[in-house]
Amino acid sequence: MAAKNRRIVLAARPHGEPTLQNFRLEEAVVPTPRDGEILLRTRWLSLDPYMRGRMSAAKSYAAPVGIGEPMTGGTVSEVMRSEHPDFPVGTLVQAFGGWQDYSVSDGKGLRKVDPAVAPPTTALGVLGMPGMTAYTGLLNIGEPKPNETVVVAAAAGPVGSLVGQIARIKGARAVGIAGGPEKCAYLTRELGFDAAVDHRSDDLPGALAAACPNGIDVYFENVGGAVFDAVLPLLNDFSRMPVCGLVAAYNATELPPGPDRSPLLMRAVLTKRLRMQGFIVWDFASHIDAFEREVGGWIADGSVTYREDVVEGLENAPEAFIGLLKGRNFGKLVVHVA
Amino acid sequence: MAAKNRRIVLAARPHGEPTLQNFRLEEAVVPTPRDGEILLRTRWLSLDPYMRGRMSAAKSYAAPVGIGEPMTGGTVSEVMRSEHPDFPVGTLVQAFGGWQDYSVSDGKGLRKVDPAVAPPTTALGVLGMPGMTAYTGLLNIGEPKPNETVVVAAAAGPVGSLVGQIARIKGARAVGIAGGPEKCAYLTRELGFDAAVDHRSDDLPGALAAACPNGIDVYFENVGGAVFDAVLPLLNDFSRMPVCGLVAAYNATELPPGPDRSPLLMRAVLTKRLRMQGFIVWDFASHIDAFEREVGGWIADGSVTYREDVVEGLENAPEAFIGLLKGRNFGKLVVHVA
């Protein structure tokens, strides 16, 4: 056991794209759990786009990380010391340990991870927050019906890849948008998407239209920007749009140049009778058991597959995170910490 | 019975605000009903903002009126000749007769109007399409809960006034936005709104914020523009936004100047988890009996009141319609044709 707690803190708020200078690796004393608490050792740290939001001071659905505070993040952690009867030493848990070696928890919100059921890293991906985001948003807001067309961007990532696979399971046509031929081939050959569109295409609107001959009934929105611009004209009447992320805008330092196109968006909402709804996974917290049971079953019977992109070493988390916002990862990005 | 059928046709598509030159009063032969048809005499013609959309060639939820064709519109009409067993001569019906003295119908979509139950003009207002728009959109999409705050613009009009009154019936706080002190006083003194805000105020955002100390939970969107800009920062998490009209944009000839604020709108959808849904009244056609029964009951017991603005003479419909888009009417605008 290391004598020190390495932790990556927010050194400064980014202006635009985060850089390595926005993070600082520090060493602190390993904390001591009090009565009712446990000491957790981070085994794997999840890196996710929402963390860009936590680096900013702008009001959002969660408080920002303070300057000098450890970056927040989901982890798979192991209980090293326990003053809590429910979590004996050696227990593996899904926690919110942050970008650090050690954290202390009172047990609230922890979920035990059974490595006999699935690889522990899946608790951060297909069986964790990203998977549940896909499952709850698609089924509760998107409500895909047989033969409808479901479009999702960042489709090779942990959310998008599950959105497309669940859409297929529900009898819908799945069209994925991803960056580059390798990811696009993965979508159609390995995940069973009906079509894949490269967002780096010279003509994204044309390529997407060709991939969606019957228009779009569900657009699972996690990126915004140019992809959304290509989607909007293709949306069918009564289409649904779960909105869980806008990665393309996260690093923006100013609004795009004019004209102001928001009246166009509202006109589409009205004339096409769109339903657009923002959500975060915790809005559907009560669905977690159904999610684990159902997606766990689909993994077990082979109808859902997943891919992970594992980076070695906590010290490499900042660079990996910066790459995540640029789409450099291929699969769920996880840092192997210990 | 007049020997001629006066009708107002679309002479030219407007660029921006409609003018009298966009309309033309013609005389045609009174049509003759064939077997299974009836000849209808227009008694009252409804004028509604959606008609601006029908004057444009842009794709929407309904086909545009063709150049030289009579303007479309809801009417209360009387059966003058009948070749249809269900509609004897003298029957009063809610029809889609258009801006003309006479029309022929095969009976499809007609609803009989009983003048003993309510004044026939209400079939074009509080008990017609505008009333049902308010009722279905507010209850099915807005879903107001007790003590929530419901905001509606064009609140002295037939849709907005019923939205606010139903919100009150459901235990919510109703805040109406209207143009000028007379309409605002009407909202609070006669309709029971909790607060009224004049959109001509020097500081609409400040006035609206003062009227909504607990934020906004439901915004019934029928105007867009500056009102929506004032509403957006006040929307609470999980608020709902039925969208049935965007009057402020109907006469726009180009998009507003930049920057492009649509990313701000999408960010609000995401971080506040807004639900925004476009609808037109026919999407809820199956609710018509419940609507008539329930709103009829509220009128009967005095918990809903309404106001009509009756213009005399078909020939004055164009000018009245132009005024409608500028908010010159006060109450449901109806043309008394015969």
From TrEMBL, chains A, B:
SUPFAM superfamilies: GroES-like, NAD(P)-binding Rossmann-fold domains
Alphabetized PANTHER family for the sequence: PROSTAGLANDIN REDUCTASE, PROSTAGLANDIN REDUCTASE 1
CDD domains: PGDH
A Pfam family of this chain: ADH_N_2
Organism domain of life: Bacteria
Residue ranges occupied by any Enoyl reductase (ER) domain in the UniProt entry: 18-335
Alphabetical keyword list: Oxidoreductase
Keyword hit for Oxidoreductase: yes
Record carries keyword Oxidoreductase: yes
InterPro entries noted in UniProt: ADH-like_C, ADH_N_2, ER, GroES-like_sf, MDR_fam, NAD(P)-bd_dom_sf
Parts forming coiled coils: none
Name of this protein: NADPH-dependent curcumin reductase
